[in-house]
Design goal:
Elements: H1 12-19, E1 24-26, H2 35-41, E2 48-56, E3 59-68, H3 79-83, H4 86-100
Antiparallel strand pairs: 1-2, 2-3
């Protein structure tokens, strides 16, 4: 569910923040050692995902996650296609945060 909070330890968010990644691919969740993959993604049939973080200065503000039921569902060659969704995601997120205030 949108806006749900999870423990930060061992998450994709922690890994992205610590390594200051611009994009993160999980090619096959069945090969993952991350508890969050086994707790959140695998039970819902997610076999691969692409996570795009959005930073504000040094602070990780949000992450857009694209999910696939197929292993190796995302490719670095197709990053421009996913980027088409970023403005709409950020706009919707900004509106959602305004409503909560």
């Amino acid at each position: 569910k949108s806006g749900t909070s999870f423990n930060y330890e061992g998450t994709v968010s922690q890994f992205i923040q610590e390594n200051r990644l611009e994009i993160f691919f999980m090619d096959d969740t069945f090969q993952s050692l991350r508890p969050i993959d086994w707790a959140l993604f695998i039970p819902h049939g997610i076999r691969s995902y692409l996570a795009k973080p959005f930073f504000h200065g040094d602070k990780l503000r949000s992450i857009l996650v694209f999910c696939s039921t197929q292993a190796n569902g995302y490719s670095e060659k197709e990053l421009d296609l996913y980027a088409l969704y970023y403005p709409a995601f950020l706009h919707g997120l900004r509106n959602s945060r305004k409503k909560k205030k």
